[in-house]
Amino acid sequence: MCGVAGYFYSDYQSGQKSVSEIVHVMSDMIASRGPDSRGVWQDCRVGLSLGHRRLSILDISEAGHQPMISPCGRYALVFNGEIYNHRQLRAQVEGRAGAPVYWRGHSDTETLLLSFAVQGIEATLQAASGMFALALWDRQQQSLALARDRFGEKPLYYGWLNGNFAFASELKALRAVPGWEPVLDESVVERYLRYGCVGGRNSIYRDVFKLPPGSLLTLSRSQLASGIRPFPVQWWSTKKEAADNLSHEGRRSLSSHDMEMVLQGAVGRMMEADVPLGAFLSGGIDSSLIVALMQAQVSRPVRTFTVGFDDPRYDESEHAAAVAAHLGTEHTTLRATAQMALDIVPSLPQLYDEPFADSSQLPTCLVASLTREYVTVVLSGDGGDELFGGYNRHVWGPRVWARISRLPHPVRAVLAALLRAVPSAGYDGVMGLVSQVLPSRFQVRTFGEKLYKLAELFGCDSPEAFYADLSSMNCNPGLFLDKDSTGKVPSATAFSAMEGFSQAEWMMLMDTLTYMVDDVLVKVDRASMASSLEVRAPFLDPIVFRAAWSLPLSQRVDQGQGKRVLRDILYRHVPRGLIERPKMGFAVPLDVWLRGPLRDWAESLLSPASLSSLPMLNARAIRHCWQQHLKGKGHYAQQLWVVLQLLAWQQYWKPEVRSC
Question: Boundaries of each Glutamine amidotransferase type-2 domain copy (predicted)?
Answer without folding.
Answer: 2-222
